[in-house]
Design a protein that fits this description.
Layout (H helix, E strand, L loop, with lengths): L17 E4 L3 H13 L5 E4 L6 E2 L14 H4 E3 L1 H8 L2 E3 L2 E7 L4 E6 L11 E4 L2 E4 L4 E2 L16 H11 L5 E5 L3 H12 L3 E6 L11 H14 L2 E4 L1 E8 L13 E7 L13 E5 L1 E4 L3 E2 L3 H5 L4 E2 L3 E3 L12 E3 L4 E3 L2 E2 L6 H13 L13 E2 L6 E6 L6 E7 L3 E7 L5 E8 L7
Parallel strand pairs: 1-2, 1-9, 2-5, 9-21, 11-12, 11-17, 12-13, 20-22
Antiparallel strand pairs: 3-4, 6-7, 7-8, 10-18, 14-15, 15-16, 19-20, 22-23, 24-25, 25-28, 26-27, 27-28
Bound molecules: flavin-adenine dinucleotide.
Flavin-adenine dinucleotide binds next to helix 1 and strand 6.
């Protein structure tokens, strides 16, 4: 067993055994599950990052707790690999999968690496795709000016900038991550503007009656929520018309969003000057690797797997975590990972198992200003019925065509929102 922390300098490695692409929660869960049953089988973990183990949901809670990226690391990639007896190829990117020869092509993920342009190959007996999903940056949000909070390294750079004192941050997209990070930054003493196309946060998931309560709670906390607006442009302000103090700030242009797709009146466009912009505008899965391997892939939801085995349609290739979709739905939550990983481990090791039984996890917003909990598969549109409605609590059920409950949302105003 060897633990390498950089791209392999030899042109070919012939590790074989089980190869896992991706060292997020999904990849590490698979390693834990395999090692719980088999201490010997060779495992190679390939990842574009350092492989450090951390709990990603903490990224929307850490800034107010004054935690840096390194505080969040539970074990470095090297230490975790040693403990699990895994060969770690960190800072290494898989660029191609040949499913016929069962070989992967690798390059260094570090541009400064002298072997950056070299390729290496590695063979696998069983391959697990745990490559996650990456943030979507609409054209109006240039990647070089805009942050995301989908990875600890990028989060660490943002956290360092924000640690220098109170700043104004615009967050684009009020889904779960955007709404959570907004509260976290507010609690850390920053001025926060949260902008969304819809009138209220979480509008793609919950009915208007429920989201109106979330919008009210967010605003009453002091977050400047701009609902019903689209950001059309973000540029670095260099023009001293903006005033000397504002040079270097980011200029966010936004205008009312016409959900019917009609052009909005340019006169109504407004500008916000902020120190940072965070994009929280959704995730997408890169189809290049699965497509190269002949793995069935859905551009909207990710890699398609067979529900009880988590096998893809290509021999000896499995998928787990944010990159995979099950029963036609992407499932980008932590809770199901342990059971998914256990099934993959048993299937790979040839052990008897009853198969993965997918149950949508409970969804819980981590905000303190309002408690939002959903079960089932909530979606904005549909036949939502109120079962409880008081000032403190709202409970609604989503009924399917047979009047069966397919989702429930419970919203409560906590007694002490600042606890
Ligand atoms: C801010 C935030 C808060 C969240 N909060 C919650 C929560 O409260 N509850 C909850 O259930 N879920 C939450 N989630 C979702 C949850 O964290 C994710 O579902 C989970 O972490 C996904 O893990 P993953 O391993 O599938 O993907 P990732 O963590 O994205 O890992 C993918 C890995 O693949 C590697 N990789 C990608 N492509 C390649 C390649 N070509 N070659 C080599 N390596 C590659 C990457 O370097 C990375 O190591 C949150 C997510 C975010 C972003």
């Amino acid at each position: 067993m060897s633990t390498e922390t950089t791209f392999p300098s030899t042109m070919a490695t012939d590790a074989k055994g089980i190869v896992i692409i991706g060292a997020g929660l999904a990849g590490w869960h698979v390693i834990d599950a395999i090692r719980a049953k088999d201490k010997e089988v060779p495992i190679t973990l390939i990842t574009t990052d350092s492989g450090d183990r951390y709990h990603k949901p903490m990224l929307t809670m850490a800034i107010s707790q004054n935690k840096s990226a390194s505080d969040l690391v539970r074990a470095t990639g090297t230490d975790a690999a040693k403990a699990a007896q895994v060969t770690l190829l960190a800072n290494t990117q898989v660029t191609d999968i040949d499913a016929t020869t069962q070989q992967l092509q690798l390059v260094s993920a570090l541009r400064s690496d002298p072997v950056y342009t070299n390729y290496a190959t590695i063979s696998y007996d069983k391959l697990v795709l745990a490559m996650g999903a990456h943030p979507i940056f609409p054209k109006s949000l240039p990647e070089d000016l805009v942050w995301h909070v989908n990875h600890i390294e990028r989060f660490g750079q943002l956290q360092e900038k924000l640690a220098t004192g109170s700043q104004h941050v615009a967050i684009i997209g009020a889904g779960m991550v955007g709404t959570e990070i907004a509260e976290d930054l507010l609690k850390a003493g920053h001025e926060v503007t949260l902008i969304d196309l819809n009138d209220a946060p979480l509008s793609q998931m919950l009915p208007a009656k429920a989201t109106a309560r979330i919008a009210a709670a967010v605003k009453s906390q002091g977050i400047n929520f701009l609902g019903g607006y689209q950001v059309t442009d973000v540029i670095r302000s260099s023009d001293d018309n903006e005033g000397e103090n504002n040079i270097g700030k980011l200029q966010v242009s936004y205008e009312p969003f016409a959900s019917n797709g009609e052009d909005t009146d340019a006169q109504t466009s407004e500008i916000l000057l902020v120190d940072h912009v965070i994009a929280s505008t959704g995730l997408t899965v890169d189809g290049k690797l699965p497509t190269a391997a002949g793995v069935e892939f859905n551009r909207r939801t990710g890699i398609v797997v067979d529900a009880p085995t988590l096998r893809t349609n290509t021999d000896n290739i499995y998928a787990i975590g944010d990159c995979m979709s099950i029963n036609g739905v992407a499932c980008r939550y932590v809770a199901p990972l342990r059971a998914q990983a256990a099934t993959i481990a048993d299937d790979i090791l040839g052990l008897e198992h009853s198969g993965y039984d997918h149950k949508p996890p409970m969804i819980r917003l981590k905000n303190k200003a309002i408690s939002v909990m959903a079960t089932g598969v909530p979606q904005a549109a549909g036949n939502w019925q109120v079962t409880t409605e008081t000032d403190e609590e709202l409970i609604m059920n989503l009924l399917d065509d047979n009047d069966e409950v397919s989702a429930t949302v419970t919203i409560k105003v906590p007694a002490n929102p600042n606890a």
